[in-house]
Every structure is written in structure tokens, then in C-alpha cells.
DNA sequence: CTGAAAGCGCTAACAC
DNA sequence: GTGTTAGCGCTTTCAG
């Protein structure tokens, strides 16, 4: 491997001079600078960033951990994070925890041993607390994305789960629905709890009784959920509309309904949190509360780099990004 | 930062002994091993992989460069790559070139300076040759994904662009269409050229004349393509069906058609390469040649690690993974 | 079984 | 302007 010493020897200077040329630091005569640069070209020299990191105690790598790489919400978020990282001179070490605590733990170990400069972390759920504490014990700069974790203080970029849920449910109410089911993510996840709260609030504000039988806790990735669904459908007084707490749950519900011969929105209205990317472009069908996914990533990355570079106060900040209600055709007026 | 020396001192051994405990190498008495392990726990020690990489000349990081993180084909591929990397003990440094040569070059520089162990590379197009040569000059293990690049010899995992295109077009022919447009990716990209060849082959085999006016070269990411589309529609003898060379082009075409008040498949049949992920789950509409995206990633990663660990012959291998024709409802019988 | 010395490639601090 | 020295945290080699 070519090192600065190889360059130094061939250019008749010391390694230090080469280092200075590479980093544009210190004063160097134009003559030697040119000579060194030329030798570097000739030998196709590329600096070894491991060696650099070792001495500088800085990797210029930021780790991004998301929970589902196939979900457009997270890929758009990743793009935002990546664009911003790149613009500010950082590389992205990317990980996908698959909503799985064991995988998440593996990534945390890796993050620590790689000595990345900071972590953008979308937690799997409340059980991520241990992993986050581990990071904090090592003073790893940290920004939480999309979900909060009880007991963890850190900069956090959240969506307006409660508010968004309230508006989705009020939309259904305005269409005349009174029996509205909630198919939710795991109770272990802050967004699921908040969406539940928003759901209840909307009902209460509109004097619609809350019925626990209409509320299901599932898992944000569970596309298929036949049993849960037929449970709902076989209620004495079944729902006429479904609020799915995220895009995958909505798709699962719609597939399930179709399997039972039911059509959306004719036989059942469906709305959900998170837009669908391509799917909505092709077929603007689902009524959703769309979150500014790109901004989650770009703002989170911005905050993280602020912290890494010491531009943040000590107090952790939290922001709640608003979602946008996009009314399409998956929810219709209740037939009387 | 806690180092092996801190551990060593506290455990009354030498750094070397600590290193041996960490790596399970050499012979160590159970007593000292236990003692060292306990101290490591107490101090929350995590090895510094930069220091390790520096001496071992191995990072256990593999770089994956894709061209579009919002395309389900690539995210599924990424998942395959990631799962396999993780299983085999490698980390993934992830990059997104956005079908952009300048971004691609930046990533190549980064890859080189990070001294990753190898690169899984989905090239932007023929212009990637310079970047690939740069990698090869540095003996960087390399596997090409999805696209070939003239002049570059390397292990390559490809889809059956020609064959898949032929089958899609023959499907349209079997429905009675004779005027079939091709909306293609850039001529600079091997898959686009191959899909063009397959298109021509299908026509020839079925004695349908080839008309250059029906063939458009665009860009795989160009969702909107109004001018190109109206050009086609205003032909003296306009097409009755469109073969879009990938999923995004198909969606762009369908949106464009709708903007003109045309319905798919009633007024125009549309088929394309690559499935749509969520979109197809929600609404199985587009007739496509679906590629085994996950396998692109997992097989490519497997091959790459084989090479990194010296388990490959010198000869570069190429595999062509078959696609699957999935007939849905976006293409219909030609009305006579 | 355990330790001391040297070096991976680079840069900060200090000479000259 | 440029060079020397030392050390970042770790492992290899060779002694004991």
C-alpha cells in the first residue's frame, strides 16, 4: 500500500510535508507543493482514513440505524440523512434493525467499536433503552428519530402522532363513521401509543363512545393479519372504518379485507399514517397523514452534526414535525 | 477512551494478554481470562476497530453503492446484501449515487480512503468505467450489480434484460398489439440497451415491423416525461401499448397518460421491468417482469466475500438471474 | 502460559 | 518552510 512515506521519499521531502500538502495546513512553498502533488498523482495515493481516525479521534462517519429498509418512510428519511451528511462532509454507515432488538444490539456494538462520530437512531421501541444507555455511557452523540424512548434524554425528531391520528379519525367521523377500528403498532412503541391517544381524543371530542374491542395492537411490519381482522369483522357491531397506524398495516388490512370479499371504500373505509411512495404515485388511493420523511433525516442529521461539532447547548431539543392530511379515495361517506 | 492498557493495568496483566482474551487466541489460563473479562465488563470496554484495521489491514467493512435508494428494486437488493454481510461478519457502508457520475466519483474516493475490504457496485452507466478502473488499480475486490460496463472485467450479477424484455413484448403481441412503444432508460446503461435488443427480437420473431419513432431513450428515474409521451401520442399511427424499461418510467408514463385523459389499460396497455414493492401489494395492477432483487444483493455479497477471503478463482464470473413475468391488469386485449 | 518491543499510517508539537 | 519525535490502540513476533 502506498503511504505518505513513499510519497515523501520520491518527492525528496519528509512525511510531514506530505501530510501538510494533503491537509492544506501550514506554510509550504509552491514548488514543493506541486512536486508532492504530482508524486501523489503518479502513485495514485489515497490517504488511509483508519490511520487518520486513530490519531485524530474522529472518523467522519455517522451511523444511521433505521428499522425497516423496505418502508418508503425510512428510505426517504435515509435519503434526507445521506444528502445532509454528504453536504457536511460525513459518510454514512448504514444499518437496518428490522424492528428487532437483537439486531439492534449488534449494531450498537458495531457502532461503538467503529468509533463513529455520532448516531442517528430510529429505535425499535421502549426496549431500545438499554442500547441507548450504552451509547450514552460512551458519550456517543445521538439523535433519536421518529420514536421516543422513556428514560432516554436526547435530541429527538418526532412526528405529530397524536395530532395526525386525531385528524385522520375526525376525517372518518366527518364522513359519518361511528364504529372506527384502530389497527395499531406494538404498545412498546411511542408512536403507537400516541396514535392511540389521538384516536381516543377524536372520539371524545365528538361524543363517540370508545370501545376497546375496536382496538388492536399488532406490529408495524405485519402486513398480514387475518385473525385480527376477522376478529373485528365478527364483532356484534362491526366497524365501518379502519384507522391503520402505519402504511404497512393499512396494506395488510386492505389485503385481508379483499380476501374476505370486501371492497375499500365501499364496504369499509381505510385511512392510515405515512404515505406510500411509489404506490401513491401510481394510484392515489389511500387517504393518509403523510409525514415529512426527508426532513426527519435531514434535520436529524443537521442536529447531530451540530452536536458533534459542539454547536449545541447541553439541553436536548425535541421537535415535532407536522404531518399532512391527504384525502384520497380509500375512505368514503358511510352509507346509511 | 478505555484501551487495552487500562484493562491490562487493572487486571494486573500485560496488554498482550488482554488482546489474546479479546481474540480468543493463544493459550491463557482460565483464571486470568476470567479476571480480564470481568475488568472489561466493569469498564465497558469496546475494542477500537480503527486501530485494529490499521494493523490487520482489514476493516470488515463492505461498501454497497446503489443508484437509487427510493427504488424498491434497490432497497430489496440492499436488504439481501445486508443480511448476507451481517451473517458473514461484515458491516455495510452504504452509498447512494442517484444515477449521478459526480456523486459516484465521491463515493469511490471515500471507499478507497476508508480501505473497505470490498465493494458491491451498481454502476450508473458506461461512464462508471473510470471509477471502476480506479478501484481495480487499487486491487479493490469488486462485484458489479445489475449493469455491466464495457471494458470492465469483474464478477457480475445481472438480470435477464433481453429475455425479460422479449417476454414482456411478446405478451403485448399476444394481446393483439402491433404498435408497441418502448420508453427506455439511458442508452448509456447496459440494461437499457439489452431491453432494446429484446424488444426488437420479439418484434422480429413475430414479423412486426420495427419503427424507430416508437422508441424513446429517457432516464430510469424520470418519473415525468410529458413531452416524450405526447410525442408518441401524436404520431400518425400512435402506439396502443407501451413497454416501459423500468418501474419508474412506467409510473411516469401512466401519470402522463392520465394527465391526457387516457386510461390504462382501456386506452393504452402498459407493461414494465421491475416490480413495485408496496404498490403492487396494495394494488396488483402493473404487468411486470419482476427481478429477484434480494438475490442480486445476497448472491453478489456472497461472491464478493468469497473473493475477499480468497475463495474465488481468478476468472471473473457472471450470472444472469431470470425474471418472472407477472401478468396483472395493466395490459389488455387490443380492441379491434 | 505471559510479556516486551516494534510497527501499522498518520499528525500534533516542537525544533531548526 | 521543513524536519524530528512521539504516540493514537492494537497485534505480530519473538523471548522467557
Automatic annotation (TrEMBL), chains A, B:
Domain of life, per lineage: Bacteria
Repressor in keyword set: yes
UniProt keyword Cell inner membrane, yes or no: no
Keywords: DNA-binding, Repressor, Transcription, Transcription regulation
A Pfam family hit: LacI
Bilayer-crossing regions: none
HTH lacI-type domain: residues covered: 2-56
InterPro entries in alphabetical order: HTH_LacI (IPR000843), LacI/GalR-like_sensor (IPR046335), Lambda_DNA-bd_dom_sf (IPR010982), Peripla_BP_I (IPR028082)
Name of the protein this chain belongs to: Substrate-binding domain-containing protein
Natural source organism: Paenibacillus filicis
Amino acid at each position: 500500500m502506498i503511504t505518505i512515506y513513499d510519497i515523501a521519499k520520491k518527492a525528496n521531502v519528509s512525511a510531514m510535508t506530505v501530510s501538510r500538502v494533503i491537509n492544506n495546513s501550514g506554510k509550504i512553498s509552491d514548488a514543493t507543493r506541486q512536486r508532492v502533488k504530482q508524486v501523489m498523482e503518479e502513485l495514485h495515493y489515497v490517504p488511509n482514513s483508519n490511520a487518520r481516525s486513530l490519531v485524530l479521534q474522529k472518523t467522519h462517519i455517522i451511523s444511521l440505524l433505521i428499522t425497516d429498509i423496505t418502508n418508503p418512510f425510512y428510505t426517504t428519511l435515509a435519503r434526507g440523512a445521506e444528502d445532509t451528511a454528504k453536504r457536511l462532509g460525513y459518510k454514512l454507515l448504514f444499518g437496518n434493525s428490522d424492528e428487532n432488538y437483537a439486531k439492534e444490539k449488534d449494531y450498537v456494538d458495531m457502532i461503538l467499536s467503529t468509533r463513529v462520530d455520532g448516531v442517528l437512531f430510529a429505535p425499535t421501541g421502549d426496549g431500545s433503552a438499554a442500547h441507548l444507555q450504552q451509547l450514552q455511557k460512551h458519550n456517543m452523540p445521538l439523535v433519536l428519530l421518529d420514536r421516543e424512548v422513556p428514560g432516554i434524554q436526547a435530541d429527538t425528531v418526532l412526528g405529530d402522532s397524536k395530532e395526525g391520528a386525531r385528524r385522520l379519525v375526525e376525517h372518518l367521523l366527518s364522513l359519518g363513521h361511528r364504529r372506527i377500528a384502530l389497527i395499531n403498532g406494538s404498545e412498546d412503541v411511542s408512536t403507537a401509543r400516541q396514535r392511540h391517544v389521538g384516536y381516543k381524543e377524536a372520539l371524545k371530542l365528538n361524543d363517540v363512545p370508545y370501545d376497546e374491542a375496536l382496538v388492536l395492537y399488532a406490529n408495524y411490519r405485519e402486513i398480514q393479519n387475518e385473525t385480527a381482522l376477522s376478529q373485528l369483522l365478527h364483532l356484534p357491531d362491526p366497524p365501518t372504518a379502519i384507522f391503520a397506524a402505519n402504511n404497512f398495516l393499512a396494506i395488510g388490512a386492505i389485503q385481508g379485507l379483499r380476501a374476505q370479499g370486501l371492497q375499500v371504500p365501499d364496504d369499509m373505509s381505510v385511512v392510515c399514517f405515512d404515505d406510500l411512495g411509489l404506490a401513491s404515485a401510481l394510484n392515489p388511493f389511500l387517504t393518509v397523514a403523510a409525514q415529512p420523511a426527508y426532513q426527519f433525516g435531514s434535520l436529524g442529521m443537521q442536529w447531530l452534526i451540530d452536536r458533534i461539532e459542539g454547536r449545541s447547548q447541553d439541553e436536548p431539543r425535541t421537535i415535532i414535525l407536522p404531518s399532512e392530511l391527504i384525502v384520497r379515495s380509500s375512505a368514503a361517506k358511510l352509507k346509511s
